[in-house]
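Lab notebook, page 48
Experiment: co-folding of the full assembly
Goal: obtain a model of how the components sit together before planning crosslinking
Operator: M.T.
Materials (sequences as entered):
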Amino acid sequence: MGVFVSLHAQNKQLLYGFKDVPQQILLNPGAQVDHRGYIGVPLLSHIHFNAGITGFSAFDVFADDGKDFNQKIRDVVYKMDAKDFFGFNQQLEFFSAGLSLQTSLDKFVYISFGMYQESDLFSYFPEDLAILAYEGNHNNLNRRFDLGQLNVSAEVLSVFHLGINKKINSKWTVGLRGKIYSSIAQASSTENNGSFRTVQGADNSLNHIFDLDIKLQTSGLSFLEEPNANEGLAILKKRLLFGGNLGLGIDLGFTYQPSPEWTVDASLQDIGFINYSKDVKNYILDDYLEYDGIQALFPEVVTDQTAQDYWDEVSTVFDELFEIDSTTTAYTKWRPIKLNSSVSYNFGKKTDQECNCLDKSDPTFQNRVGAHLFAMKRPNHLQWALSAFYYRKFFKGLQFKTTYTVDAYSFTNVGLGMSAAVGAVQFYIMADNLLDYQNLAKSQSVSLQLGFNYIFKNNEN
Amino acid sequence: MKNCPFFKNPLALIIVLGVCFSCIKDTDFDQATPITLTPIMDVNFMEFQETSSSFLDASGTEMPFISDLIVLEVLSSDFIHDHLTKAELVFEVTNSLNKAFQIKMDFYDPEDILQHSFSIDIDNSPSHIPLVTEHTEVFEAMSLQALKTSFKLEITITLVSNATGSVLTPDSEGNLDLISNGILYLEYTQ
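Observation: model returned without errors.
Model output:
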């Protein structure tokens, strides 16, 4: 119990700056590129999966310790607070490619493009609602049950991107990537306010105060109502190929190498938005009511109204209180912006001491150490992670990178990534939270990236 | 397979095997039973504030009783039927009239058959000092079933004459006030 491992959804600290893997350029369009071009193996070039939760692990609940299951769930619920969250992120690259183009005698630009599908699910833990469900309001008089804690979003989208990367001089490389988002389906309830409170009443024992301001925005969910599965599938396919709700975004990045040993780089990803106008359905619950009970009205006192009439009135008021309005108003959402930045130091060139008949020397540095910062905008907070990394080139075709990552919760996240190439075919695999692999149930986050590419190396390589 | 570097690099294989053979220890996923929640909800019930004139007819004469009927549709809802395990109705009656009363609560089902009944005796207050009477009616087992089948509540306030009490007139000092709330013990399993 109590092993906190953070969720790093979308933090790809192993891939960031891993020069041998072409997909690193998606994290920093201004990354240094050391190949002439590449083609990703369709559907296999980048498979990314990450799921995680803060506040507890499966082990806390499923440990074979003889404790009552319900009690363990209760302990977990009471251990978590409104800052805890659950997240799931998955990416699948359909295709991608990159190519170095000669613009003049010694000038090159590197163009890369591709398309991937992404799913993202994110939810904060609605602590107050959980407490209300567990305890009710009996021992919580005057407590403000905050409905704003209800904050959940889910989306499936496809992204087409085209990036340009240019090495300006020996020190600077810059890049820009344009993105077209096509949202397949989206649902979010992130702008909630209001509360439920029970306080001592003036006219009656209690006064219930309902202050409801809840909104659920959805788009693209009508396929769920499509009775014919094939029809539904056809709709989804169309949306995958720019038939969904469209948006635009850019990524920016640079690499600065003041000396061969030192490198500083940074990027901003997904500065962009999606406008949801097609197949939109929004649900709004917005009302306020103070309720202090039924007033008994003795017919002899007021002849024209009985308690029955009064009760009918109360029923109507409650029906109206919980009446959900639906609209089809278009809405716009910003994409979650991400920042990556690192500083690194290269060292240890490999030189052959003796016979040069089979030249295996590599003029590049064999080692790199550095620090990497990741930050991402979440609805209520900035998610961050700081990593120290060590990169090691074993041969031309085998490189490793290991990371140690800390963030608000975890101090035990060690990751390992590898890129291996035989000829032009390259395979890479990266996973973090390796210490937890001794017992996955204790892990609060699982992250994996892998892929295959066909790489055209530089002539000098 | 020939070009697959994966099988040629022992280290790669170790990583992949590490991932594949990572284990889930000391756990028992079969213990997952439905989660039972047992919240206790305090809800407002009814209230009234009556002066002496509430108990008098048009000519200013005391009536033997006054009554009202409240339809409690909520009691017959599926939610209450399925999840209510115990209920308490907590009444606080404050009397400053120099008149004793009996407040009777009769719960009827939709066919007007009496399911449950109780009454609260209220003393008169000769010096018009507010006298507080508390009553908690607990519904469990049989009485809970009776409550769940109830649809209507008839409240009858009967005027009780005694040696120290006086006859009410429109000018009689004091009030008869009632406030109440329900405590609902719920249980739901998911």
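Interpretation: The helical segments of chain B are 10-20, 78-83, 141-148.
Next step: discuss with group before ordering constructs.
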